[in-house]
Amino acid sequence: MILVVGGAGYIGSHLVKELVEKEEVVVLDNLSTGHREAVDNRAIFVKGDLGNVDDLLMVFRSYPIKAVMHFAANSLVGESVVDPLKYYENNVASTIMLLKVMMRFKVKNFIFSSTAATYGIPNVDMIDETTPTAPINPYGRSKLMVEQVLADFSKAYGLKYVVLRYFNAAGAHKSAVIGESHDPETHLIPIVLQHLLGQRDKVSVFGSDYETEDGTCIRDYIHVTDLASAHILALEALLSGEKSAEIYNLGNGLGYSVKEVIETCERVTGLKANIEMADRRPGDPARLVASSQKIDDELGWKAERNLEQIIADAWKWHQNQTY
Ligand code: UDP
């Protein structure tokens, strides 16, 4: 059985939907930002808190867990700057507690959701896993700290792990029964689509004087279903013993500017957006684009869905959003 912590969240729920086809799954989630409706009903759901050792012990005593996939984290850069305690407590301290309980129950396989924010403001066009990490905010630091803990636990206790550094997760399940639903929503694609549905009066473009071709920030958008398939390959590589301590970037390898994303949303939906140029958002690097060559070479993973597909699937979800 696989324990998916944070399996009611955006990325976790998409992973669970794929994973239940292959494995028995138990989801632990406190529903602080996740949605019970997002959890596939073939998975067992336990409402509980990662920060509560009794909840963890109960899950590990009740189910024969062979691997843990950990998605439960706070992930807003701005919030992490004003409330770093929340990030170090929920993202670092609670993860250490989870690892401690795993060690006690001799569960040695761990897949960890990390982020492009570990790279800070990198000085390269294509970020690969050898690009130095230098996070510029508590969110990125909290993820990097756990990565370092994992490396030490691997050497000392034989923990086996794969760290997956996501670039910009977006899109929705092709069935449109699950998708992205954050409150507040801060991400570009859902904001543009909500605007095109009449739920917001405009889209603010945060900065148009960056050193990029059209002056707006460039990001690497990756379909949430492609992220899910990478997790399944990583899990198989751990369980087969093929991998024991790896870090992989997950992106499309293609950069799109904020303006290009808005234009693609307009093309896919056939609607016109009302755009306003706004100030830069603090902490936004001009360009973040991944090389995912390593996971392609080692596990045979490639992103299969392009920006149009991402936006088309997100659009289906937003038109029919149920939670
Ligand atoms: N962005 C924007 N307007 C918005 C939301 C985001 O211009 O209403 C920009 C943001 O500054 C960044 C890009 O869109 O350059 C992607 O931001 P998002 O929050 O989706 O992801 P991030 O890259 O911060 O993880």
TrEMBL record:
Its EC number is 5.1.3.2. It is an enzyme of class 5 (isomerase). Residues 2-251 form the NAD-dependent epimerase/dehydratase domain. It comes from Neobacillus paridis. Keywords: Carbohydrate metabolism, Galactose metabolism, Isomerase, NAD. It catalyses: UDP-alpha-D-glucose = UDP-alpha-D-galactose. Pathway: Carbohydrate metabolism; galactose metabolism. It holds the Pfam family Epimerase. GO terms for molecular function: UDP-glucose 4-epimerase activity. Belongs to the NAD(P)-dependent epimerase/dehydratase family. Its cofactor is NAD(+). PANTHER family: UDP-ARABINOSE 4-EPIMERASE 1 (PTHR43725:SF53), UDP-GLUCOSE 4-EPIMERASE (PTHR43725). CDD domains: UDP_G4E_1_SDR_e. NCBIfam families: galE. Homodimer. This is UDP-glucose 4-epimerase. InterPro entries: Epimerase_deHydtase (IPR001509), NAD(P)-bd_dom_sf (IPR036291), UDP_G4E (IPR005886). It comes from the Bacteria.
